[in-house]
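The instructor's notes for this session suggest beginning with a concrete chain rather than abstract definitions. Hand out the sequence below and ask the class to guess, before any prediction is shown, which regions might be ordered.
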Amino acid sequence: MGKLERHATISDVAALAGVSVGTASKALNGRGSLREETRVRVREAARQLGFEANAGARSLHSGRTYTVGMITTDTIGRFSIPVLMGAEDALGAGEMSVFLCDGRDDPIREQYYVRTLLSRRVDGMIVTGRRTEARAPISANLPVPVVYAFISSADPQDCSVVPDEAGGARKAVEHLLAVGRTRIAHITGPEHHNSARVRAAAATERLGEDGLSLVAPPLFGGWSEVWGRQAVGILLAGRTEFDAVFCGSDQIARGVCDALRAAGRRVPQDVALIGFDNWDVMTEACQPPLTSIDLDLEGLGRSAAEMLLAAINGSPSPGRHAHPCRLVVRESTTVPLT
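After discussion, reveal the predicted structure:
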């Protein structure tokens, strides 16, 4: 009968690192005021031996469970999944596990998950969703820190990490100006939608700084290709002269591109076109490939998780924190060299 494999113990790690068991424990659990070279030496010994600290023992030592709850209202996951991936990157580096709960826009279901997560003694929570509008705090007087990611809390004392949509819209307009376009139209989503209003206002403001204005008032409609095609029809029927279109979403931009092609307008030679969200399903399917503003949702998720970890460790960051967007340039705004 074969010998049972013996798992490495904290004593083995301490012996290999040349330190006491107490020092090895502190180094692996991030406690105590140890020299960095000691921590590194202990971690390297643990890696060589394949030693894994027991989560239950860590919990007893620290009063923490090394778990975080994430509650989302984004049932499709288009926005919450990248945020979750970014958050897991940061939390995984801190050896934290994540419980994901789908609230489905149902307040009763959401409160059930809050109670469930608290019963599991999570160290903190991240709340996310598919819209950037401020929402009511998920619960009052929670015993653990909460960070809102992508969505924001209506309570200014809560910590919210949101995309800098206004900054993204300004980058879109600045790019169009940089490629020589000055007659810019803006086609976006429903006027009651916070993102549509913020992006339209920022685009208008940025043009005004150069003494310019949109060629027509912002065209508010749906977040769809159908609306993009209809809006181009409105511009053409009104004989509006335009050499660029900034769209509030990539879906709208793809519809705009199709309509411009059908009308004999070349993209980007006649009309430069830029979207928002950098959704690869749309940007890559568009012909030509679509220039867009990327919300950097994974980076936003990482920032939210890092702020939650800091809050768990006693350093909260209350308030609304804007995470920068970035411009991704493709062929829809740049004429290829011949």
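Then share the key points. The mean pLDDT is 88. The domain at 66-163+297-324 is CATH 3.40.50.2300 (Rossmann fold).
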